[in-house]
Design goal:
This protein is mostly beta strands. It is built from 2 helices and 15 strands. Strand 7 and strand 8 form a beta hairpin. The radius of gyration is 28 Å and the shape is elongated. The N and C termini lie far apart (about 65 Å).
Length: about 200
């Protein structure tokens, strides 16, 4: 066995002959690139500790890369609900958050936006986003694969992302509401705001 060199192109040629000195025709050849490298990825939006109101329009998105001659194969994402009842979103089957789901079964393939596949990626799943609860905190993980099925050494994680699609409630208590209210001086306006 030769000492294979990472990122090197190789061609293997196979030829056979029999006892009568007949040689195989055609000669079989196989070309490949020896690749032991690992791709990388990052989540660019949303950031940890963010409050987001519309993941369907804004989309979870990020970047990925592989050092040439390695080529990206795919980017995968998983979503975890945090808090007192943590659970991973199950992309196959119930399409809901599952408290007993094996975390490795929670990965799903993101979409690619580039002609160079996977260098820019995003998540656009109406089913996933319809399962998010207002006021709940979530975590997003991303990992990438190259064409030799080497997985990224580490995941990229954004955590404590609060889904907030409800507007705050506001109320005025002074001056009092209603028709026929007259105020002779107004040195302050009093009100309240409620948001989670």
């Amino acid at each position: 066995t030769p000492a294979w060199v990472n990122a090197q192109s190789y061609t293997i040629t196979a030829v056979s002959s029999d006892a009568a000195h007949n040689v195989s025709n055609p000669i079989a050849t196989y070309a490949f690139i020896y690749d032991t490298s690992h791709s990388t990825q990052s989540i660019t939006w949303p950031q940890s500790n963010a409050r987001v109101r519309d993941l369907q329009t804004e989309q979870v998105r990020g970047l990925a890369g592989a050092a040439a001659p390695s080529v990206l194969k795919k980017v995968e994402v998983r979503v975890k609900r945090l808090g007192s009842n943590p659970a991973y979103w199950e992309p196959v089957g119930t399409n809901n958050f599952n408290t007993v789901l094996d975390p490795e079964a929670a990965w799903f393939t993101a979409s690619s936006t580039d002609g160079a596949p996977w260098t820019r990626w995003y998540v656009s799943s109406a089913t996933l986003f319809s399962r998010l609860s207002a006021g709940q905190s979530y975590e997003f993980n991303a990992r990438s694969w190259n064409k030799t099925d080497n997985i990224s050494v580490s995941y990229d994680t954004m955590t404590a992302i609060i889904y907030d699609n409800l507007p705050p409630e506001t109320a005025l208590s002074f001056p009092p509401a209603g028709g026929g209210v007259f105020v002779s001086s107004l040195n302050m306006v009093v009100g309240s705001k409620l948001d989670f």
